[in-house]
Amino acid sequence: MTELTSLTLLEAKKGLEAKEFSAVEITQAHLDRMAKFESLNAYITPTPDQALAQAKASDERLANGKARKLEGLPIGMKDLFCSKGIKTTAGSKILHNFVPSYESTVSQNLLDEGSVVLGKLNMDEFAMGSANLTSHFGPVLNPWKANDSDEALVPGGSSGGSSAAVAADLCLAATGSDTGGSIRQPATFCGLVGLKPSYGRCSRWGMVAFASSLDQAGPLTKTVEDSALMLDVMASYDPKDATSAPEEMPDFTTALKGDVKGLKIGVPSEYVMDGMPAEIKALWEKMALDLKAEGAEIIDISLPHTHYALPTYYIIAPAEASSNLARYDGVRYGFRHPDAKGIEELYKLTRTEGFGDEVKRRILIGTHVLSAGYYDAYYLKAQKVRRLIVHDFEAAYEKVDIILTPTTPNAAFSVKNPPTDPVVMFLNDIFTVPASMAGLPAISVPAGLSGNGLPLGLQAIGPKFQEDQVLRLGAAMERIAAFSRLTQNPSAMIGAAS
Ligand code: GLN
Predict the structure, then answer these.
(1) pLDDT, tens only, 222-263
(2) For residue 428, how far is its CA from the centre of ligand 1 (angstroms)?
(3) What's the pTM?
């Protein structure tokens, strides 16, 4: 029998419903594998007792014919979704001992449909990063290795614990959050499907905030179908989040067939970037040709403000972060510096020691661009450019149904020698940030391997609230690429999958 941990979410759901194995068995199989691959550092807080108790309750429901959508399916939770009674750190020292008294809406939705939560997944501190190198709890390792070196690679970020865990079969699926690319980029680096829904689709209530006008929860999964299954449960209209959207969710059934006949697919000229590896461009062009052969229409389009998306993002996101992170003062949450005398010193020492360098960099940038005298020149201007980016997409969707681009300009890089210039690190988000700025749904699907055997992804960006179109193109790309996941390809795994 195939190992229980190597099943997809949907396969496991069918297996449980057919009573081929129990929820306790599949949960225990994942817990055992988590222990075996502890060195990946994917989980900050495993929750085995809770998971087994949930699995036991699921087995009773399965036996009584009362199974819910995700009954008994073990998943991982990014550590920025507040879990009632369970430590929720957002990868930061300042929240290292924070135990929420309530559950986030997204995680509650998942619990209400019977999923089993194996633990809280590592992440870049406050979701700031592209490599999972900024976590207070240490770097996460990508379970993939190149075919020409045994060097440890980054799993992408900020949802790097999520991507490493799903790729190494340490959970069937995981939650992530995406502000400028944090679901799609790690999905690409680990050969997974990552879906950022439309802004407003999943509630932000109980999700530790980074940049409130951009943050969006979404799934990291082994397949496109699994992505639809997770999204369906994670999303909800939530009156507790003022930006939650009351829009109906489209039906995914037809979309998941991946029939692209007559689909108008836009290919934006601005996404051909100087210095982009030829193999990424070739993968993108080949996919467009294959989709054309299946009856899609490939249309050249222009998104003229694309080049401004990244600099604009790195004004707006830090501005919002500096405001959101003002609440961490040593009084209300988490870490409090023990030596402070007086309130000012308490703020100063707590924040100096509680935040890591990347978070401080964002707070400084954000405070600067919002300060009197600079607000108009930076923040206000960035808001205007953001509007132009939204217009670019609106104009494009008058001509096409969906847009096809690469997800990242490179594959996973070394943990030991990552880019030292923060701006080079920021370039990881160059293809993912525009959809974030416009609040559009976007999926990354693994499309092939780089010359040295590392996964590369392609991205489908859809019109707002049309997650069905995104899944439709995603399903077609998945079929065309016929990508083998890491654990179907064990020689590519670090530590040689013993
Ligand atoms: N890498 C980007 C950043 O550091 C995006 C992060 C995210 O989407 N949370 O801001």
Answers:
(1) 999 999 999 999 999 999 999 999 999 999 999 999 999 999
(2) 9
(3) 0.97
